[in-house]
Amino acid sequence: MTLRTAVQQSKILTFVVLGAFVWLLLTLFEVLSTVEFATGTASFVGQNALGGIAGAMVLVIVLGALVVLYSEITESDPAPQSWPPSDE
């Protein structure tokens, strides 16, 4: 079973992936809203700008991976050839 077939057959998988995307996006907005850029890198104890930026970068990478995965799943061309090959 390919990922494309799994998504087409399992609607709950689609909702789980969509839910994870929305949750990660909301978490990214929350992280960006709590970062105090004025503190800079002066203090490395507790919440600081450097930790917030690193967390935001990780969330952006994960969101990008989900977008790429979705685009690969929904891509229709080039489609794999059917098996067994038919005589045309």
Per-chain topology:
Elements: H1 3-9, H2 11-34, H3 49-74
How would you portray this structure in words?
This protein is mostly helical and 88 residues long. 65% of the residues lie in helices and 0% in strands. The chain contains three helices and no strands. The chain has helices spanning 3-9, 11-34, 49-74. The mean pLDDT is 79.
Number of separate strands: 0
- Strand fraction band? under 5%
- What spatial form do the alpha-carbon principal axes imply? elongated
What integer value in Å does the Rg equal? 20 Å
Instruction: Give the H and E element order.
Output: HHH
Structural class, by secondary structure, is mainly alpha
Overall pLDDT level:
79
Largest sheet report: none
Uncertain regions: pLDDT < 50 for 5+ in a row?
none
In short:
By secondary structure, this protein is an all-alpha fold. Helix content is 65%, strand content 0%.
Q: What are the main properties of this structure?
A:
0% strand, single chain, 65% helix, 88 residues, mainly alpha
